[in-house]
Amino acid sequence: MKDESYQNHMQDKRLDSIEKHIVIINEEMGSVKNDMAWIKKFFWLIATASVGGLITALINLLISLAKHYGT
To answer: How far is CA 12 from the centre of its chain?
Structure first.
């Protein structure tokens, strides 16, 4: 009987420890889910670079066409 009581007590301790860790992990994940500012900054960085690349390609195309047709 004492062995079962001891085992139950140890399992309760382990469960308490696991529950505490779960609470900590949930708090940390909540802060990550709520902090989306870095994703917006990354999106704008990629979008700006893409638009800049398109504008550069269009200017390069216009210059090469002007050289080819001599206008």
So the answer is: 36
**Residues 43 and 30 grouped into a single domain:** no
Tell me how far apart the alpha carbons of residues 41 and 65 are, in angstroms, rounded to a whole number.
36
Q: What pTM was computed for the model?
A: 0.47
- How does pLDDT run across 14-63, given as a tens digit for each residue? 888 888 888 888 887 776 666 677 888 899 999 999 999 999 999 999 99
How crowded is the C-beta side of 43, counted as CA atoms within 13 Å? 5
Domain extent at residue 55: 36-71
- When divided into structural domains, the chain yields a total of 2
H or E stretch including 36? none
Alpha-carbon distance 34 to 36, whole Å?
6
CA pair distance 54, 33, nearest whole angstrom: 33
